[in-house]
Amino acid sequence: MKKSCFLLLLLLPLLAGAQSVSIDRVNPTNWWVGMKNPNVQLLVHGLGAGTLTYTVNYPGVKLLKTNAVENPNYAFLDLTISPTAKPGTVRLVGKKGPQTVTQTWELRARDKSPKAQGVTAADFIYLAMPDRFANGDPSNDKFADLRDPNLDRANPFFRHGGDLAGAAQRLPYLKDLGVTAIWFTPLIENNQPLTNEGGTMRASYHGYGFTDQYNIDKRFGGNAAYVDYVKKAHAAGLKVVQDAVYNHVGNTHWILQDLPMKSWLHQWPTYTNTTYRYQPITDPHAAQSDRKNTLDGWFVPFLPDLNQGNPYVANYLIENAIWQVEYFGVDAYRIDTYMYNDQPFMNRCNAALLAEYPRLHIFGESMVNNVVDQAHYTRNNINFPFKSNQPGTIDFVLEYAMLAGLKEVGTPGVTGWDNGPQHFYQALAQDGVYQDPTKLVTLLDNHDQNRFLSEVGDDLDKYKMGLTWLLTTRGIPSLYYGTEILMKNFKDPTDAEVRKDFPGGWPGDKEDKFTAAGRSARENEAFDFVKKLATYRRDHPVLHSGKLMQYLPENGLYVYFRYDATGTVLVATNPTDKPTALPTGRFSERMAGFTKAKNVLTGESLSSLATLQLPAKTAVVLELGK
């Protein structure tokens, strides 16, 4: 997400007492019987909604308290739902003098469909931008009643029309690739106008400017399309990761058009942007003003910063998170801009989700460059004053280490003291800071970064080495869409260059990279490489869930093992530009008793393990046998 401009929002004038009253919204839009937490707080909005006296007459549902706030257009109703309550239509009745307003609110039965299955080290996540992936329903490409009615595939900053219908059609493609989970950038409604970012008018096709958390953007197909997509993904054996945003919303969010209270947002005397500096959050010597600027400053001017210290904001966000899991059936949450959130709030939100859905996996985006700061945002073994309860996080530190090592592959300095695979080794050597490093989500690039192939100089050998590391080391690997077909580019001049349409995702595309026939020989080589390794990983638990043992790189050569009671896999990396013989006596701790091996990637059988022949610029994956 990029920078633009926006004005501070203020409360609208208070209502005159003589006006009529109404209710036009209730959030959550519905709830369910049988939730572990029986309490729910309803946000009720309408003309004078906060001046009404409310009653609820429904068996098993009790109104505990009506909360009035600064803006008389809002009331917050605290309800408790008994375990004996039955599904049905609840009537919220508000009275003011002779006026009576009735609003219906649905209490549903929980369905038995799969949900909150979590993602684990056994999974392989595929990250895609839905607007740029595939268009299956051109009828929902644009709408005249939205603030941004534009559609233009020739403009890299406008919407292109990708949707859930198109994504559903590509589920067999992902299944064939060996993917087990799909993660989309946000699908929530972004009814935002074009924003001026760096002198260019841009659409919020990326999805990070929410305008109504209870609606999937109708350009993606709406709520029904997402429910249908999740069911189809589950039927195909794929899990669904939801991209969540708690830190901010779009500046045209419906609530911001009539703020419940000034403290709904972090307000400043003059506009204040976050510094994007993460150090003040964990620095024991930090000035409080620096910490406040990092956390409470706005991410960009057109994405107002939510005040999660406000209990009404916190309740609203937490209940919406639970609602989305229950309503759509998603399996995991990726949390955007995690480190900019109020961390006690995040702990409370995580705890509420995990209380209802113990298997749900949560991993946040905290883009830092060292393991200490990264560990702060997940369950860790460091004596921080604040202890995070987040189960996982995105492992940017390991990503940076892999990229640094790969960039030195084949160079004269690759065998230096801290060069080449040493970067990778040293990052993993610090895993003791995490309570469970296998819950970290690993990556080589994403929608905010240069594409992986470009980072390694369009070198197919380095590409294969990086994919081998990603799919054989610890953690939950994720792949950015198009990496498997060698999509490339730098963020030059903007990130639109790394968010191009997947070729073949639109009717009439000249090339269809979803099919082998539409790919070049080099693209098929890359696709087949990813598929073979991902499929092997999926089908052999030792490679995704076995223990990891690594050996200090020597002469640039790096060896590690994945092992458990069912087997042992050896990964040996030769980053030099010459074939190398590797004596294996040093690795007897893990190789004792094994006399042969099969090369997972080539199918070649090895009848002797005394010395391994490693091709130049290659990572070899061997399944050991006796």
UniProtKB/TrEMBL annotation:
Residues 1-18 form the signal peptide. Residues 127-537 form the Glycosyl hydrolase family 13 catalytic domain. One of its GO terms (molecular function) is hydrolase activity. CDD domains: AmyAc_bac_CMD_like_3. This is Glycoside hydrolase family 13 protein. Keywords: Glycosidase, Hydrolase, Signal. Coiled coil: none annotated. It comes from the Bacteria. The keyword Glycosyltransferase does not apply. Pfam families: Alpha-amylase, Cyc-maltodext_C, Cyc-maltodext_N.
